[in-house]
Amino acid sequence: MAAIEQAVVTATTLPPIIVAEEQFEELSTVAERLAHAIPEVGHFLERELDRAKLMSLARMPGDVVTVGATVEFILGTNGRAERLTLAYPASAVAEHGFVSLASPVGVALLGMKAGNTISWSTRYGDMRSLKVLAVEPPR
Questions:
Q1: Helix 21-37 and helix 39-51, axial crossing angle in degrees, nearest 10
Q2: What is the pLDDT confidence band of residue 10, given thresholds at 50, 70 and 90?
Q3: Of 28, 69, 109, 126, which sits 20 to 30 A from 40 (CA to CA)?
């Protein structure tokens, strides 16, 4: 019961997110696949998609993280700034500058706007957070 209460409290403090209409179907498919392979990440992505505002890529503000955007962000409160490109799981290789939507960090970045911070709970109950510093739209 406490986990359900915690999820409700967290949901009320989450920053608004925007997801590209053109990417929504593929993101939903990724969430479904991850729900079977990595349930924690799959369910996190499903929750994010459920609360997202949809907007066409043509109208998407340049400072919103979409798949293919390069993001500068700080993980945690004492972390150093990182610069990675958000990618679908099949094309993301961390050592090549990508962050996958098959990771909690990738899901947390999706739809965020420069200047926003998001926090989430790991499957072990630890809290994680990140702050988006800058976004470079996909080319």
A1: 150
A2: very low
A3: 69
Token reading at 134: 């800058």
- Cβ atoms of residues 65 and 71 within 8 Å: yes
Q: Could you give the CA distance from residue 80 to residue 117 in angstroms, rounded to a whole number?
A: 15
Question: Cα separation of 35 and 102, whole Å?
Answer: 10
CATH class of 2-136: alpha beta
Smallest CA-to-CA distance from 114 within 64, 67, 43, 80 is with 64
Q: Write the DSSP assignment of 4-38 as a string of letters.
A: HHHHHHHHHTPPP-EEEHHHHHHHHHHHHHHHHHS
Residue count (the chain): 139
Beta-carbon count within 10 A of 30 CB: 25
Structure tokens of 85?
């490109």
Dihedral pair phi/psi, residue 19, rounded to 5°: -120, 140
Q: Which of 99, 120, 124, 128 is nearest to 6 (CA)?
A: 120
The amino acid that residue 110 corresponds to is: L
pLDDT tens profile 50-92: 999 999 999 999 999 999 999 999 998 778 899 999 999 987 6
| Domain residue limits, the chain | 2-136
